Structure formats: structure tokens, C-alpha cells
Queue: 2 jobs
Job 1
Amino acid sequence: LSSVTFGVGILLDYRWFKMGVVSDQLAYGSAEQSLVVSMDSLLKTLDWGFSFSSPTYDDANQLHLLKFQGALDFVNLGSDTDRELKLGISAKLQLLPTWSVSLQLGYREYKPESTDLLKFSLARGRQTLALNAQLDTF
């Protein structure tokens, strides 16, 4: 074992809303160096994310035909070189509980300035589009 790193995180999980805050480097150390607790590393690797989801089943426990999901992540909030914004949305056609087809849209943009965190520039960002089929059991 040449080095060790400790992180910290917290997750709020509600039926349709989830929020997480995590940092990969609260403390780190190596065989040559004692354990160092660093607030600077904690802030540079701080991630904050939200997700929203429509229910899979209705109140009568019947499968909804359509399910929508969205996520927004702020990654490496304290870093001027690695800060980024990630956004994703998904529309899923649920044919059976284990069979579905999804259309997924994604967006990712590096944010060197913390004041630009909520500004979108399609020219600077990267967009993705995916079509996904899930057939778990036959």
C-alpha cells in the first residue's frame, strides 16, 4: 500500500428527488508522508448533484408507460481547471418492468470561471444523444 485517500459524502434520497454532495479527497497520505487533512483538496474535488424522476408505478402499482428522468451535476466546484457542468435527461418507454426503450440527451461543459457555472454555451459544451434498449429477461 503506497498511498491512501479518504473522501466524504452525503445523499438525500426521496421518491422523486435525490441530491448528493461528495468530495473525493478529505484526507490523503502515503508511506513516506503522514495523513494530511486538506480543506483545499476537499473544495477542489467537491461535487454536487441533483436528480429528478417520475414514478415507475402509479398508486395502483401499475407500470407507467412513460418515465422521465433528469440530472444536473456540478463537478470539482473548487477547481479552476477541472470544474464542469453535466446535465442529462431521459425519456423512457416502459413496455414491461424489465423491457424498455430510452432516449437520452446529455450535455457537458468545462467551467474555468465559477461565475459561469449556470451559463450554457453549446459551442463550448459537448452534447450526446443515445437510444437505449433494455431487455433483461426473455
Job 2
Amino acid sequence: MSLQTRHEPILRIRELNKAFGKNKVLTGVNFDVYKNDVISIIGASGSGKSTLLRCINLLETPSSGEIFYRQQNVLSRQNKINPYRSRVGMVFQSFNLFNNMTVLDNCMVGQMKVLKRSREEARQRALSYLDKVGMTPFVKAKPRQLSGGQKQRVAIARALAMDPDILLFDEPTSALDPEMVGEVLSVMHKENLGTHISCEGHFVGHDKQGA
């Protein structure tokens, strides 16, 4: 691998704009994300932090601008967005777990549906990441039986099990009680190092306490 290749960004955002009607939320956003980068986006409520993350993983379609992933413009009509989306994980502030599924199944379903992994492979990877976040005793539990901090740890394990190149954290502690914040931040900091090593991951989030 050449020196130039190693220093190319995984993700490149160029002149990204997003408006909802006449309300301009994002204007001319530019930045690069390199291998092993850890980036915190900090700003007041309503300043467009969540919108930026949702534009990056295309939950929202940017009004204009370009998003390059490994030198490919993902907004080009010639490129399919689903392969890109499968490489961009997201941990939401509201957890977004499937309430009708167990903790284990929550961490398996994406692997099987999107990555086409076998049930056994998905199970083993899910169990491995649930163990890393301290949720092994709860693999058969449903989300309604968990605390907020536990739900967020499951959400982190679910995202990591997908082996994302880029992992987005959307204020992962804002919906938690104060006593739960520490446990989630501890998991994030611990898995930060692990992901850098094993998955070459990148964390883009906006939580001042997690910065």
C-alpha cells in the first residue's frame, strides 16, 4: 500500500447542505474522516448535529453537496446506497431496539438480513460483542426488561457486530438518567480502542461528555 493511499480519507464531506423547506439546517459543511479518527461534533440544541449524522448515513437526503466513501460519491445515481449504508453504523439516542425481539436477536437480525451471515455466525459475533459490553446475562431478555443504560449497551453491541467502517453516535447518553451515563461512556471508550484495532473503525458523534 502506498503512502498516498494510506493517507486518503475514508469519508469526505464536501459542501453539504440540508434544508427543510425554507429552514436551512446545514450550510456548506466540509470535513474529512481518516482511518482511526475520533470526531466529536458539539453544538447547541437545534444546530443541526443530528441532521448531519443522518445525512452522512443517508437517513436524510442532503439538499446538495457530495459525500465520498473510499473515493466514491455515494450520492451519484450510478452508485447504490445500500452497500454504503451497510458500512455505516449508527447508535441512536433513543436506542431503536426491536421490542419484540430478545437482546440476542436484536444483535443478530441485521447481520443475517443485510450482511447475509449464517444464523450461527451471526449468533457467535453477537454473543462476542454482548460480552464485551457486559450484557451476556441478558441475552434472552426483551428490551422492556432493561434499563436505559443496558439498552444503549445493546445498541452499541448491535452496531459493532455489523463491522462498520464508520460508526455514528447520535447523543448516545442524552436520553439516560445521570447515573447511567457513566456506564455507557465507559463502554464507548473501551470499545473505541478495540474497534480501532479489530475493525479499523471511526466514531463520529455529538456528545460533549463523550468527547
